[in-house]
Amino acid sequence: MKRSDTDAAAFAAGVELAAITLYRQAIDNPRLGEEAISVCNQFMRHHGDHAASFNELLDQPVAGDGNRSVLATYRPMLDGAPNQRAVLDVAHGLEEMLAATHLNALGVLADGSAAASTATIQGVECQHAVVLGTMLGRPLEMLCPDFDEVRDAFDPGRFPA
Amino acid sequence: MDRRQLHDATCGHVAGIGSWRDLLLRLSDPAAAVSPSSKAELVGLSTRRRFLKIGGATLLTAGVLGACSEKDPRPSEADLEPPGLRSTTTTSIPDPTDPRERDLMFLRTGTSLELVAVDVYQQALDSGALRTPAVRSAIETFLHHHRDHATALQQATSEHGGTPYTEPNAVVMRSVVVPVLPTLTDEAAITRFARSLESVAASTYTHAAGELSDPAGRRTMMSLGGAEARHAAVFAGLVGAAPARTAPEAFINTDVLGTDVDGRIPDAARVPA
To answer: Which residue of A lies nearest to B138 if distances are taken between CA atoms?
Structure first.
């Protein structure tokens, strides 16, 4: 793969690993109900699978807790979450960012197989966002934009790998 | 268990499979009166004989459907063979080798699927069967999305030097939608059908995104594929799935749809460049 593709895959693996860390933190919040815990557990597993998928593209897999800048942004939000709704709100925002990040990567990746892997993940992040948004009672037009966009993507400049 | 019991059990097993399989299974409904040739067409074959003989999960479903819907429902020995033992002939439409032609094929196929959704949702709205405001609102909103998606794909087709496609996908309409429409008489059936259509569209776009020749095209494709994946999740919620069941898999499946596969349309349903 080209260097830019390797960088994009490493960045994606890092944000997926950060998502696992953040969901683990969310699940530890005693204010979460049974259904929310079930959803968070499932999405955490999905992100583990996603991180593994991106790591398969790399000669040197990314390990650890994930992208530090993403963690530095979201951990305090979860620490301060006073109730289940606040926790799910953070998770919802994170999933929208992940969906946009992978969509953005699709416009950068030169390697077709890397793009194919990324595409299978992007749609699932979209579905995660819908599930969490529905639990939050968000209106349909917020759950489902006409077209998915890259506007909210994690910027590697602001969230370096 | 004799062959007839095995056949009945197999049909019963298939009847319990959900989602897009529902859509395929409706083809086995006698009320739908779908000809074997239509089913064969959907899975990319030209005759019932080939329809029954082909291998793989999709075609196992197809073979079962063919067997379940015949006057004489007894399957042949070959029909009861495990998929791995069957022949594996596949598509009837050649895969273009020229990248531009391939891109155009995906763009035009996407357009044709969007126009299927527009058609189905308009008929659902006109049917008077949609009584729950949330369902009606989803169908209305997504109809507009699909119309916009079709327009975007038609524009992209023009930009690639092709002729924009303007008709609903003929194979999907003839083989699936038209036969099934008479059975979509209540809101629950319509919602399940809509969820299936959206899943298939999401899978088809996801597959296309891995096949297109340029990154910009891939991103455009998944700006639609992501939207369809969202639609599918909304409909899953509206049919009563628990939140964790609304997004159950870690990856969008890109295999061709089949018995245990919620996947993309068969290659035979693609629209040539």
So the answer is: A140
Give A63-78 pLDDT, tens digit per residue.
999 999 999 999 999 9
Structural domains in chain B plus CATH codes:
3-85 (no CATH), 99-267 (1.20.1260.10)
How does pLDDT run across B112-145, given as a tens digit for each residue? 999 999 999 999 999 999 999 999 999 999 999 9
ipTM over 0.95: yes
Q: Helix or strand or coil: residue B265?
A: coil
Residue pLDDT, tens place only, B202-213? 999 999 999 999
A 47-66: CB under 8 A from B: 49-50, 53
Is domain A3-143 annotated with CATH 3.40.50.1000? no
Q: Cβ neighbours of residue A76 under 8 Å, at least 6 residues apart?
A: none
Judged by CB atoms within 8 Å, which residues 142-181 of B form the interface with A? 142, 144-145, 148-149, 152
Question: In chain A, where are the structural domains located?
Answer: 3-143
Where b means 16+ CB within 10 Å and e means fewer, B170-191 reads: ebbbebbbebbbeebeebebbb
Using CB atoms and an 8 Å cut-off, which of residues 232-261 of chain B contact chain A? 232-234, 237, 242-244, 246-254
User: How far is it, in rounded angstroms, from Cα B83 to Cα B85?
Assistant: 5
Burial (0-12, 13-18, 19+ Cβ within 10 Å), A64: exposed
